[in-house]
From TrEMBL, chains A, B:
This is FAD-dependent oxidoreductase. SUPFAM superfamilies: FAD-linked reductases, C-terminal domain, FAD/NAD(P)-binding domain. It holds the Pfam family Amino_oxidase. It comes from Paenibacillus arenilitoris. Residues 73-527 form the Amine oxidase domain.
Length: 534, 534
C-alpha cells in the first residue's frame, strides 16, 4: 500500500512515530485524538488509566484491603480493576447473584416485591426478560468490557418503522394502530410542504442568499417527499395499501392522513424518541441475556464476592472501615474490615443503613429521589408480531398506561418469544406498580390486545417488576431534581473519609451501565493515587 | 386468560371460528386481513397459493417437464415451488454455482470481468463480500423462505447515526467528516426553529385552529430540540465535544454548525436515504453470507440443476420448448426438451441468445436498459472503525466517487473485517467500473482514507465487481425508462407461447430478491393453471 499513501499521511504517521518514541503509547493516543483520528468517545474511554501493578510494591497493595458494597456493575468494575492491580477486594452482595439491576429473569427466577407475594417466572427455557438495562449505545464504555471479556453481542433493534404508534383520545386517528412509517412520512411531508412554500414564496425573512434558499427548498423536497410543485401527496415511504408485486402489479401507495388528523394524533412527538444521543442506532445487547455482562465479571472475581451479605452498618476510623453485615443464610451478623470502602448501594437503600457519614453526606444521601420504572415480560405461544405483522424487534409506542411494547430483538423466527409488554416510567409506572402481579398482567394483556388482538389467544406467562418495590434497589435510577446537581450532588462525589460512593448515581450517565462503570473507574483511580501517596 | 377477554374480542374470535368452519384456513386468513389483524404485506404474501400436489394426477404432472433458465432466486423459487407440486424441473445454469447476483465472494472466489484479467479473492477464511444483494426488508417475501428453510439471520445495520457524512466542495464543511447525528440535529433544529417561529408568529396562512397550531409548535419543539423560546442552540442529540462521565463531569454539548454551513453542506439531503420504504429499519441478512439463501434452495433441488450450461438457443413448437446449451466443461452443445420454459436470464444477456420469440417480445427484450452498480470489498487487518471510532455497522455517505462505505453488520469485535469500500451506482459506478482492479482498489483506499486515515496502514486485500462487466449479468438490475412500463413491459409479462419470463425485471420490486421471488411465483401459478386446463 506504500504507493497509495499521500504525502500528508506520510508526515502524519512519521509525526506519530516520533511522538511515540518520545512519549510512549499514551502520547500517541493523545496526539491521534488531537489530529481527529479518534472520537471524543474514544478519548473519554482513554481518560481512565487502570492502576498499574508495577506502581506499588506487593506488600503495599496486598496490605490494602478494599471493601466493596454491592455487586452491580460499579462494584464489579471496581473489584475487577483494583484486582488487576493486585489489591485485595471483597464485594458484599445481599443477593445470591451479581448484577444488581442488570438482571435477566428466566424460568424459575423469583422475586417478592415489598408488600407482595412471591412471583415465579414460568418462561420456557431459553426465554428471558431483561428486567433492568437491556441495550447499550455503541459508544458507551460498557462496550470495552464486552470486547475485553469476549461477550457475544447482537444489535438491539431500537428503531423499527414497521412497528406502530397507537394513541387514544387524539381525534380522528384515535384507536388506530399506525405503522411508524405512515406517521413519519405524513408529518415530515406536511411540515416540509408548509416550510418549502413559505421559503419559496419569500414569506419568511431568512438570513440566506437566494442560492441558499434554493438549497433549503431542495432539502425540504427530499425530506418531505414533495412533488415538483412542493405538495405532499403521500409517498411510498409511508407504505402501500396494496403492495407492489410481480408483473403489472405496481402497487398502490397509501393515502396520507389529513394534516389535521396527523397533528392532532400526537404521533409527531414520538419521532424524537429516536433522536436521543443514547437512543440512536446502533445499539447492542449480549446474546442470551444482559446478565452475560455481570457473569463475565463474576467469572473473573472468583472467591471475591460474598453473597447473601446484607450490609447493616458502616463504621469508619482514622485507619480503616468496618462493615457489619447480616449473613442471610445463617442469620448471623458478621463484620469485615478494610482500608477503604466503595459503596455502590443505591441511595434509597443506603439511607436506611446505619453509617457514621458526615452530616453533609448523610443529608445528601437522604435527599435524592429515584425514578419509577416498571417492566413486564409476556411470553406468547407464537411470535405473531413476526409471523402476522413482520415486526422483527423494535417498539410500539402508545399513550395508554403500558407506554410501549418492545418486540424481542433476538431469537427471530423461533416458535415462542417473550415480548416486553410494557416499559413504563413515572406516573404510568407508579400506576402499574401499585397493582398486583395478576392485575398488571391483565392490564398489559388487555391494553396490548388493542394493538395486537392475537394477545388473548397466544398469551402464556408473565413476570413483572416495579423497581421502586424491589428490595435492595427501591427505584429505577437516580433522578436529581431542581438544583441538586449543584447543591448536594458534589458532596456525594467526594469521599467521606474512607468511603467512596460509586454507581450510575455518581455520574452524568444516569440510568446506564456506563454511568456505573465510569464512576467505579473514577473511584479506582482515586484510591490508587491515595495509596501511592501514603 | 378467559377473564381478560373483552366482549368485542370474544365476538371477533367467534366470528373467525365460524368463518373457519365454513371456508377453511384461507377464509380465516382473508377475514383476518379484512379485520386488520394482518398487514397488507402479509396479505400480499398470502396471494400466492402454491400448486397443490393433489390437484393433478401424478401422470399429468410427471409428464410436464419444465425447463428453467438461470439458477438465480427466480429460477430457484420456480423450481422449488413446482417441484413441491410434483413437476419435473431442470434448471440450466451457466455458472458452477447457483444464486446469480446473490453472490458471496470468499477466499478463492475468482471472476474475470469482460475485457479484464482474472481477479482472485484473497480474503481471510470466514470473511466475505456480498457482491450483489446484501439486505432484506423485514416485510419482503424473501423472509418467508428464510423462515421455511430455517436460515439463521441477523440485523443488517442500515441506519447508524455514529457513522459519517463527508462531502467535498460544499463550503465551510468541505472535507470534514461529520457524525450523522450532528447533521441530523442541526438540520432538524434549524428548520424546526424557522417553522415554529413562523407558525407561532402567524407568518403563515395555515388551515389550522389555534389549538392545532399549538400542537404543531409543540411537535416542532420536540422535533428540533428547541428551547423554550423556540431557538435551536444545539442539543446532546448531536453529540458532545466532551463526553459526560463520572462525578462532576457533566460533559459539553458540541456547538452546532451555522445554519448557512449546514445548508450548504448538502448533508440534509442524505437524511431521506433512510426514509425509503425498502431502506427503513429493520433490515436483515443471513449470518455468514447472503449465499445462504441460494444454498438453502440448492440443497432442496439436488440433481435438478445442470451447472456449466450456457444457453445458446431457445426454440419453441406448438407442443414444447427445446433449449440448446453449451456444456462449458466438455464444450459440446446439448439440448433439453420440455413442455414449458421459465426464462430468468437478465435481459441484456437474453437479447444475445438466439430465440424464436415473437417480434414484439424480441423488440421488448432488446429495448430495456440495466442499471450500473459496483462494489468493492476491502479487508483490513483491524476493525479500526469499531476500535477507534465505535462504528458498528451502518454506512458513511459521501459525494466522492465511492459514494458510500458500509461497515460490516456482522462479526463485531473480531480482529479483521471486510468493509464495503464503495457501493456506487450510475455515473460513479461507470467511472469506477472502467478502472482496472488495481486502480479501483487504489481509488477506494485513497478516497476512503480521507474519512478513515487508518485505511493506509490497515489495508490488506480487495475484490471489486462492476455488474455491467460481469458475464451472464451485464448489469445491476433492470432500469425501465420513460414510458417503458406502459409500452414494452406488458409484453415481457406475458408468456411468449410456452416461454415465461421471470426475475426482478418482471416485477415492481426491481433490484430486490423479493422481485425475483414474486415473479417466479406468478409464473408458477400460471403454468399450473394452464396444465390443469389442458
Amino acid at each position: 500500500m506504500e504507493t497509495t499513501k499521500t504525502a500528508k499521511e506520510m508526515s502524519r504517521r512519521q509525526f506519530l512515530t516520533t511522538v511515540g518514541k518520545l512519549g510512549g503509547g499514551a502520547a500517541v493516543f493523545s496526539v491521534m485524538g488531537t489530529l481527529g483520528l479518534l472520537s471524543p468517545e474514544t478519548l473519554k474511554a482513554a481518560d481512565f488509566v487502570p492502576p498499574d501493578m508495577n506502581e506499588l510494591s506487593m506488600s503495599k497493595r496486598g496490605g490494602k484491603k478494599i471493601i466493596i458494597l454491592g455487586a452491580g456493575i460499579a462494584g464489579l468494575t471496581a473489584a475487577y480493576e483494583l484486582g488487576q492491580a493486585g489489591y485485595d477486594c471483597t464485594i458484599l452482595e445481599a443477593r445470591a447473584r451479581s448484577g444488581g439491576r442488570i438482571w435477566s429473569v428466566r424460568r424459575g427466577t423469583t422475586v417478592a416485591e415489598i408488600g407482595a407475594s412471591k412471583q415465579v417466572a414460568r418462561f420456557d427455557d431459553g426465554l428471558y426478560l431483561n428486567a433492568g438495562p437491556m441495550r447499550i449505545p455503541q459508544f458507551h464504555v460498557t462496550m470495552e468490557y464486552i470486547r475485553k471479556f469476549g461477550i457475544p453481542i447482537e444489535p438491539f433493534n431500537n428503531v423499527n418503522d414497521h412497528a406502530y404508534y397507537y394513541n387514544e383520545d387524539v381525534g380522528e386517528l384515535s384507536g388506530q394502530k399506525i405503522r411508524k412509517r405512515e406517521a413519519k412520512a405524513d408529518v415530515r411531508g406536511y411540515v416540509s410542504e408548509l416550510m418549502a412554500k413559505a421559503v419559496s414564496q419569500q414569506a419568511l425573512d431568512l438570513p440566506l442568499t437566494a442560492e441558499e434558499k434554493e438549497k433549503l427548498v431542495a432539502y425540504l423536497r427530499t425530506e418531505g417527499g414533495l412533488d415538483a410543485d412542493l405538495f405532499y401527496k403521500g409517498t411510498s415511504r409511508g407504505g402501500y395499501k396494496d403492495e407492489p408485486g410481480a408483473r403489472l402489479d405496481a402497487g398502490v401507495v397509501r393515502d396520507p392522513f389529513s394534516m389535521k388528523a396527523i397533528i392532532n394524533s400526537g404521533f409527531g412527538n414520538y419521532l424524537s424518541s429516536e433522536y436521543g444521543y443514547d437512543q440512536q442506532m446502533m445499539m447492542f445487547h449480549p446474546v442470551g441475556g444482559i446478565d452475560a455482562i455481570p457473569n463475565a465479571f463474576e467469572k473473573r472475581l472468583k472467591g471475591k464476592i460474598q453473597y447473601h451479605a446484607e450490609v447493616v452498618e458502616i463504621k469508619q476510623s482514622d485507619s480503616g472501615v468496618t462493615v457489619f453485615f447480616k449473613h442471610l443464610g445463617t442469620g448471623e451478623t458478621r463484620k469485615i474490615e478494610g482500608e477503604y470502602c466503595i459503596c455502590t448501594i443505591p441511595l434509597p437503600v443506603l439511607k436506611s443503613i446505619k453509617a457514621d457519614f458526615s452530616p453533609g453526606m448523610k443529608q445528601a444521601i437522604d435527599s435524592i429521589g429515584y425514578a419509577s420504572a416498571g417492566k413486564i415480560g409476556l411470553q406468547f405461544k407464537r411470535r405473531f408480531w413476526e409471523e402476522d405483522e413482520q415486526i422483527y424487534g423494535g417498539n410500539t409506542l402508545t399513550n395508554m398506561d403500558i407506554s410501549s411494547i418492545y418486540y424481542p430483538p433476538t431469537g427471530y423466527m423461533q416458535k415462542k418469544g417473550v415480548l416486553l409488554g410494557y416499559y413504563a416510567f413515572g406516573a404510568n409506572a407508579d400506576k402499574l406498580g401499585a397493582m398486583t402481579f395478576r392485575e398488571r398482567e391483565a392490564h398489559a394483556v388487555n391494553q396490548g390486545a388493542k394493538i395486537h388482538p392475537q394477545y388473548h389467544k397466544e398469551f402464556e406467562a408473565s413476570f413483572s417488576v416495579d423497581w421502586k418495590r424491589i428490595k435492595y434497589n427501591l427505584g429505577g435510577w437516580v433522578s436529581y431534581s431542581g438544583d441538586q446537581r449543584q447543591t448536594v450532588y458534589p458532596t456525594l462525589c467526594k469521599p467521606d473519609r474512607r468511603v467512596y460512593l460509586a454507581g450510575e448515581h455518581i455520574s452524568y450517565i444516569t440510568a446506564w451501565m456506563a454511568g456505573g462503570i465510569e464512576s467505579a473507574r473514577a473511584v479506582v483511580t482515586d484510591i490508587h493515587q491515595r495509596v501511592m501517596k501514603e
